[in-house]
Amino acid sequence: MMFNDKMIEYKNEPNTEKQVKKILTPLVEKWFFSRFKEFSLPQLYGVLEIHARQNVLVSAPTGATKTLTAFMAVLNELVDSAIKGILEDKVYCVYISPLKALNNDIGKNLLEPLKEMEEIHGKELGIRVAVRTGDTTQAERSKMLKNVPHILITTPESLGILLCAPKFREHLKDVQWFIADEVHALAENKRGVHLSLSMERLSYLSSHMARVGLSATVAPLEEIAKYLFGTNRDGKIIDVQFIKEMDLKVLSPVPDLINVSHEHLHKKLYEMVNKLVQQHKTTLIFTNTRAATERVVDYLKNKFPKNYNLENIGAHHGSLSAEHRKQLEQDLREGKKKVVVCSTSLELGIDIGFIDLVICLGSPKSVARALQRIGRSGHQLHSTTKGRIIVLDRDDLVECAVLLKAAIEKKIDRIHIPRHALDVLAQHLLGMAIEQVWEEDELFKTVKESYCYSNLSRVDFNELLSYLAGEFVSLEDRHVYAKIWRNKGKVGKRGRMTRVIYSMNIGTIPDRTAVKVKVGTMIVGTLDEGFLERLKPRDVFVLGGNTYEFRYAKGMAAFVTAAVNRPPTIPSWVSEMLPLSFDLAMEIQKFRRLMGGYFIAGKKKKEILEFIEKYLYIDGKTSVALYNYFNEQYKYMGMLPHDKKILVEHYADEEGRKKIVFHTLFGRRVNDVLSRMIAFALAKEGHKNVELGMNDNGFYLGLARKGQIKKALELVKKSDARAVMEQAIEGSEVLRRRFRHVAERALMILRNYMGRKKRVGMKQVSSMILMSALKRISPNFSLLKEARREVLEDQMDIINAESVLEGIKTGRVDVVEMETNVPSPFAFKVVLQGVMDVIKLEDKMQFLQRMHQLVLVKISLKQGKGKKGVVDEGFDYYEEWKKAEERLNESRDEEMEELKIEVMNLEKVPFFVKEQIVRLLEGHLDIRLDVIRELRDREKDIKKEWSKKLSKIVFKKLKEI
Amino acid sequence: MEIINGVRILDLCLYFVEEKVLVLGDVHIGYEEALNKEGVLVPRYQFEDIMQRLKRVFEGLDVEKVVVNGDLKHEFGTISATEWRHTLKLLEFLLSKGEVVLVKGNHDVILGPIADKKNVEVVDSVRIGEGLIIHGDKLVEIPSEVKFLIIGHEHPAVTISEYPRMEKYKCFLLGKFSGKDLVVMPSFNLVTEGTNVLQGELLSPFLEDVSNFNVFIVGEEKVYSFGKVKELN
User: Total domain count for chain B?
Assistant: First the structure.
């Protein structure tokens, strides 16, 4: 059966009010117009389709009455049947949303109308609505079995369990509608994959079930429709995404983002935020990370105490308790808050009342995300959505300006839907085998109806069945591992405990317990698991205001030592950093290319400014800042890198280490792949210890001697990206952790076994054992394959990386190498990412400015307008760079030297004790016990006699022992 | 490779050349089963692997006595049928090579019945030449004639890393205890490498600070000397 694109069409014209009224029963029509003046646009488009059991994807902004659009036809039919006395005891409609909170909201939003209708009608209708989640009590569940709900509101996980429940299943055999809300939030991760298979299992029971998807602003709509409808089903897309007016601006706190101190920039930033908040009734601020959320709330409270206090400001993010968050959401609904700051947690559609302004601090990293956030404002259908993006550096400025353009021009960046996830499939195959005995052929066919598995190979399918049947162990051991039996082309469940194990371990969200950070046995804080994946031994990071050096990880604990004098090498929030979307990255590069064209053609500043303002919809001040940034880069390098011209800069740092910067503005996910591919090629050329750092704008490599990039690229062009990358991630922390999640989903590691819940730490250790054991069976064992796929496709972006490499191969993309003494302006941020161990975080701005000065000098020298004094003294900017780095290194070492001298000069202290103290300062942990005891016993005296600095450090280090 | 006078490293075992005694330890038969009971469905290959590896060790080796330095089996408490069978099979194999002595380990709570069945001695320690072999979970009196100690229990391993890759390897450690040479043997448990000694938190009372201990990593065909623990950190 050929998959025909014509099967999915856009509905271009809405129905008329008359047409919609025609299908409504009198009671529903009466009720509707007692509440509302007229049908909304989504309703005019959607109600008739849903009534006709058409598969529909409705894409509309928040507050656009999507929910009622979806339910109107459903309620209509149920009310009609109820009145006619033909309402059956079965589930007519299943409603799914990713959030538990949303489910409770909807219960209310359905029960209210029903009650109102009953009042109008004068008697009860007997339409039952029930919510079923992990929180539903046993009593409620039994009740549901006896009084089957007509509308079932549930989560993807609970649905998976209900499908296997032998009694409840019977009531799912004639479901008329399946409504999936916030589809955009489900489709892009494994939870959505899980749901897609549940949908197929439901369709297998209820073959005429209509699928209705409700989604916010997202792309690509056709693909999401395919995800919703399945591989071979027709459907319609209703795209009313842009019916709301949008007031969106990009703002900079200061006119010049580079020649400004960190403090000043932040001062101006908060002044701007405060001003905006005071000008509006309720403001919602997005910061991207939890740490930033806390900081912003603190700062506002401290700097503007008259304006902000506990009553009217609040912080909302994932690390806060559920009660705190619920209360805050309630406060918002009741209009009690002036401003709420969150990381990303309030992006999804829970009703938070009336918000008249949304502020994004820093780039939201994708157009879709920006629109979703801004869409939280102006909740009523006809109000304008209002958003302001405040940028914090020049790259941010470029990014957000291009984002603004894309948002205005409705070019939404595409999400990535995971394909062929074998672990989720394994879980579902088991669920299906528990439901009934299947012919393997039919099972394969049913599974392939899911868009997420449309190209599943029979080989992969068979391998999974083989895994589930325990065929990877000897017959005598099989009973322990086999969850299904296979015989004569049929499969069914095996084992008494299998159903219980399945229901207790269902789901795709792995336990993401925070990693405990320990100094010795003392817990000093927690980190996100994703962050742990990025840490290497000796990395220094900040946590709770203190710096720590990472030593090693064991299970779910990270062991560190306090790193008093070492500056951070990696910010703690780095794993929380949202990656720049590939599509937006390409738009930014296109802008670079167009700008490049203007500079190459020798256009004057005035003309270029005009172009910027027209192209980017921004005003005078911002366009000048943008112009300056690009002008500097152009003057310094003689060209601008862009999507068709990758600039590769070579320079050497003060230790003579060669650094190579690649201006690959493709987003972190792609750069993760590109950087490793090139590092791999260089390693093949004999380079050892290739250092690597990257961000959304590019990556850099550090080598001991000059790297032959052209040669490395040749090697990369010839290589199979996937094979290289699989080798590159082998034995890495990120693969190990992903494998653990995969093993859990595929039920090879059971969270809940025999009534016991496993500690997460134990799981990590045992998953490593499992990984080695499976490698032994086959390096391509399904679960190993899936772990790799997840890392390369979902976490990184190997697919787009491959297309970039293809571009280089075919010559469509040029690679230009240049040598510099100092990194070019566009390279600063990429380089700083890694050079951070020479720079204290708070000096980052100074460093940036100093380098910037050097660049300016070089440019003016080039233009023959050199500063006289500078040229006369034989000024060498390279020397300056070296000196800057040295100075910062020295200031670290100097302090230590001073302290050591002080120790040696201590009076009344025996020599061997002085030695031990020096060792203590150097970070050794094996200090003589008697010395430690002495120091502790005499703490009071020591604090009186020794210098404050010395005693502080000594006792801090003692704490680590 | 000789680790101490008269004692050679032979894969994961030690061989006393003059006395013709082979020492291995911490086999932990039944470890996979224990994991299965925890809900980690790791497939069971350990026993086959152990037998294969042991056969290679014994090839062409002149052995009169075999010492198993504790934790022959994994389970505390009851012994499962498979464990019973495997343990007996392993003992039979060892008995075919020479006299067998079992040193009691902390996991060997019910070693008695199995040992009785095969008429094998279970002891707390064994003297071979100038060495004393003990499991290492408890401190013992060390007679003055003893020049060196051999313990197990710790399952020493080290992680070698080159970002982003990290691999763990079984190893022998050589250091000192109370002025005497101390050798820590790796486990013969093939399911997991063991405890990373670079990360502190050691179990044995014989091991307070291993930073000055020498590390010998057991490879496929060779043993590699990697210097001191502190240098690897």
Answer: 1
